[in-house]
């Protein structure tokens, strides 16, 4: 779910590194490597730009997976489930299964990656898996995996000592997001700029 204006606000907590460097942070762990969850629906969007070969969409997905293979982390693809909301961004959404799902899942398995289907929105499932520690991070948009830079945000942070997950939920609700009705005034950025202590009320 997009929250307009959030990333510039959190810029003081930002750390920039490559995907490979990020994966090496758990290189010495005995349990598993660095696991990153990926919303598969974003890959469908990028696959539409494939123009080469007999199956250009799957060719695009193949090369994306090949790039992932060289990064050193463990990808877990999450597909949208049947319980997704009917309305998104105040528009009726098409809940039919994407034609690329079967081919993409076969390709994911061929590369040795893992995938699963969430009950509803893949984004919600990724957030849950991250919260319970089954994944270490979420790759939200991987259209430029090769030589990619990732932005990590660590909270709490000295710049925002009182900012926690509950506060971020409050921000998302006040900003509307993908599932807002548009009735809530988008005031949180202005309020935050004036009084950072608003987050201590949550």
UniProtKB/TrEMBL annotation:
SUPFAM superfamilies to which the protein is assigned, alphabetical: PIN domain-like (SSF88723)
InterPro entries: PIN-like_dom_sf, XPG-I_dom, XPG/Rad2, XPG_DNA_repair_N
Pfam families, alphabetized: XPG_I (PF00867), XPG_N (PF00752)
Domain called XPG N-terminal: residue spans: 1-91
Name of the protein described by the UniProt record: PIN domain-like protein
Species lineage: Eukaryota, Fungi, Dikarya, Basidiomycota, Agaricomycotina
One GO MF term attached to the UniProt entry: 5'-flap endonuclease activity
One GO biological process term: DNA damage response
All copies of domain XPG-I, residue ranges: 112-143
């Amino acid at each position: 779910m997009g929250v307009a204006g959030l990333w510039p606000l959190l810029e003081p907590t930002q750390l920039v590194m490559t995907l490979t460097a990020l994966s090496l942070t758990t290189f010495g762990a005995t349990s598993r490597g660095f696991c990153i969850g990926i919303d598969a629906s974003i890959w469908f969007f990028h696959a539409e730009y494939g123009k080469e070969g007999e199956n250009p969409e799957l060719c695009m997905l193949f090369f994306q997976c090949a790039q992932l293979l060289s990064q050193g982390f463990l990808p877990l693809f999450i597909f949208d489930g049947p319980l997704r909301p009917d309305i998104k961004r105040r528009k009726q959404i098409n809940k039919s299964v994407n034609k690329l799902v079967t081919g993409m899942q076969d390709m994911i398995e061929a590369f040795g990656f893992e995938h699963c289907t969430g009950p509803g929105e893949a984004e919600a499932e990724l957030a849950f898996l991250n919260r319970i520690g089954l994944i270490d991070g979420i790759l939200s948009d991987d259209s430029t995996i090769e030589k990619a830079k990732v932005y990590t945000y660590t909270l709490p942070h000295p710049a925002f000592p009182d900012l926690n997950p509950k506060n971020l939920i409050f921000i998302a609700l006040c900003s509307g997001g993908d599932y807002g009705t548009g009735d809530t005034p988008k005031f949180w950025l202005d309020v935050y700029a004036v009084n950072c202590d608003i987050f201590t009320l949550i």
